[in-house]
Hints:
The complex is a heterodimer. Chain A is mainly α. Chain A has 10 helices and no strands. The radius of gyration of chain A is 25 Å and the shape is elongated. Chain A starts with a helix and ends in a 5-residue tail after the last helix. At the A-B interface, α1, α3, α4, α7 and α8 of A face α2, α4, α5, α6 and α7 of B.
Amino acid sequence: MTPLLAATSEVAINWHTVMFYVISLCACGFAVIVAMTNNIVRMAFALIVSLAATSGLLFLAGAYFVGAMQLMIYVGGTVVLLIFGVMLTAQKAFITMRTQAGDWILGLLVGGTLLAVLVQLVFLIPQWQSSDYQSVADKQLLAFAEELKSQQDRGEEITPEQRRKLELLAAKASEGMPQRTGEIGLALVGVRADKIESEETGLAGYLLPFEIISVHLLVVLVGAAYLARAKRHHHGGDHL
Amino acid sequence: MGEFFAGWFPAGWEFLGYTVAALIQAFLLVNVIALGAFVFIWAERKVSGRIQDRLGPTRTGGAFGWLQSLADGIKLLSKEDLMPKDADPILFKLAPYVAFAASFSAFMALPFASGWVALHLNIGLFFLIAVLGLEVFGVILAGYSSGSKWSLFGAMRQAAQVVSYEVPLGICVIVPLMICGTMDLVAIGDQQRGLFTNWLIFHDPFIFVVFWVYFTCAVASVNRAPFDLAEAESELVAGFLTEYSGMRWSLFFMAEYGSMILVSALAAILFFGGWNGPIPIFSALMDWFPDYLGNCWWFSSIANMFGVLCLLLKASIGVIAMMWVRWTFPRLRVDQVITMCLKYCVPIAAVCLLGVMFWTALGVPFFNDLLPAQERSLVREGWFKTGEKQADALLESLSASTDEEGDVE
């Protein structure tokens, strides 16, 4: 159902909003637990719940692909690795972790900076400032539907081309549309399917940032492997 | 389904209809797992009995012992809920629910017939694979929080196995995805309509190989024998769930059976035509009597019911095959498990991936040309269908009255 159609029928309870509050409360609450608890394994558990709730938020927003990606990479992959690391390395002394005052200050500084940047970003986007925001696709759909309506009132039939255009616009305004994986793949190499019809036809290439991130990740991995090797070599002569 | 129930309620109270629909769907999904586990636990005993030349349960509930699962359930319910002294109390109690929730939530995106799915995602396949990977987490949590080194060893072994078998499993799943050109499970199933030669397993020789690799990896990733070295009887005794008893233990068991059904149903959808029977009786009937049955809602409902039966039958065959494998093959050693994964499954799957790619790219003739190309592309463009529906609804609401237009704003 398009947001447009949803607006026409009066809904007593907006379950979408309710679920948003529930899930975001879950995400934030468990994030706080991550910071508060001392036990490192409970910390990892709370982190996983928080990340899973974030993917729930993405699902609510209609970003299914990103949501499943979040589940796969963060919840299923990274955190499992993290837990492995914790279980293999944490001994009695490290299993409960006390946060030093300096760490608190540093963490608050970094987190606060990120929060400030994000909040500024949120208020920078004009559509997000009002609650009755309608997406561009919705507005296009509405305008075209009005046009067709007036055409009908004049007694003219709707041509198949117009009908096709209406279908396209309606599909575009529907929530699943921007997450078609084919389009995501095309967007990665710079073809923006969602901007082909508008003025700003974007070769908004995500390829370069994507490549930079992946090379960066590779460098980090190689660095981590190198550091781990060097440490073991330094400690003792026994070759495992 | 939501729209159907919303029609029952007066304006302004449609949300009750949606709630009813959601509750019914949740109830049905829970029962797929619960009844599935109920039947398959009994079937496992019978299958193992037959394979080992004995009878299996015979006493509880008549000749076939068909009430055995119920008796087991009552026994498990009445067992004492034990917890080791060294265990982490919160995590120990949470772990079974985490494992079960991971298995259960994957069923949300599993279609049982064309369009009969609780959550129709355009990335259903990816979602299923992602959620299946979460079960490891319950395993690790259970093993760690038990406060027993044997549980921890079992958890580590199983987690290592499940995580490593996800790699070939992922590659295998890509093959049908590549042929169908979509991650939408409903669309993948619908593309295999028609005679059984349309099933993807008959698409080309490579995908026939891929199915066996998929099945091997699926058996390993749901931790069934011969890949259940985490539960090796001699040294570990049931692996990560050593310390669990009663209801918590049975939750892990339910999760395992849920995953077995899920993985088999996924195999049926990806390789064996999903809810499509071997011979398209219903669509043939629809073609012969288009006037009577063309827009007949009960007829399409019956066809979908038949589809559900078909899918469950195929999934059951997969589960029974897993049981058969369990009681036939000897358990693998840990090095053999890893060799199997890295030296056999991954390369075979990768070569087949390339093979299917060239097969489709070169346009080598294959059997399943029976579905007209135009129809195939229509299924592929399911997206436009949603657009059509919405355009219809929109035009209807626009032409209804001028008063409503004020509300649109």
